[in-house]
Design brief:
This protein is an alpha+beta fold. Helix content is 47%, strand content 17%. The strands form 2 sheets. A 4-stranded mixed beta sheet has the order 2-5-4-3. Strands 1-6 form a two-stranded antiparallel ribbon.
Length: 202
């Protein structure tokens, strides 16, 4: 978990060194992230299909659905066994991690169809439970990392001279890519990973 005093200190230090002004900062509790669906709004393109919209409101390509599953989208909707990922977890009585496992199983069994970027549907089949069609089941375990009770995220609102640091450089060179393994050594993510691997508990 990166929300530590050491990481906060590193962030403040690096922002100051690059003339990036911290306008405000603070903590947002996981419970608030969950109740207000903040992470869902952040990843809206994916989450809209997983937690926000019911399947009946999704623009599902009927031809792709029928080709993959052998029945029309309208028939599946009428049967009432189509759910977004959050509904699917509730109906099946499984956790986010269990849904992620089942998502992997249906993907391996080729019972999954991609409709577009960040838009998937999989047939989840668990012995003793109803077979259901679930949208973006992979999102639940990703979401769970931000909504564990007692945890939190820490945010910064910053400003800087765009002539000195472009938006692309801020994301790529100052913060570093999302995958720390690809982050430049001098970026925040690169530094945090190096300290963590070095056992200094960033």
């Amino acid at each position: 978990h990166a929300v530590t005093d050491a990481v906060k200190g590193l962030v403040s230090e690096q922002f100051a060194a690059r003339n990036i002004k911290i306008v405000s900062e603070g903590s947002i509790a996981a419970e608030l992230i969950d109740s207000k669906k903040l992470i869902d709004q952040h990843y809206y393109a994916i989450a809209s299909k997983a937690t926000i919209l019911p399947p009946s409101e999704l623009n599902v390509p009927g031809d792709k659905f029928e080709k993959q599953f052998g029945l029309t989208w309208e028939a599946a909707l009428a049967a009432g066994n189509v759910y977004n990922a959050m509904e699917g977890c509730a109906v099946l009585g499984i956790t986010a991690d269990e849904m992620d496992t089942q998502w992997g199983i249906c993907k391996k069994a080729k019972k999954l169809v991609k409709f577009g970027g960040g838009f998937y549907c999989g047939l989840i089949e668990i012995e003793g439970k109803p077979s259901v069609y679930v949208f973006n089941g992979f999102f639940m375990s990703m979401r769970a990392k931000f909504t564990v009770p007692g945890e939190s995220i820490y945010y910064y609102v910053v400003e800087w001279d765009a002539n000195a640091v472009s938006w692309a450089d801020f994301r790529g060179q100052v913060l570093g890519p999302t995958d720390p393994a690809e982050a430049p050594e001098g970026s925040l993510r690169g530094m945090i990973m190096a300290r963590w691997q070095g056992g200094r508990g960033a």
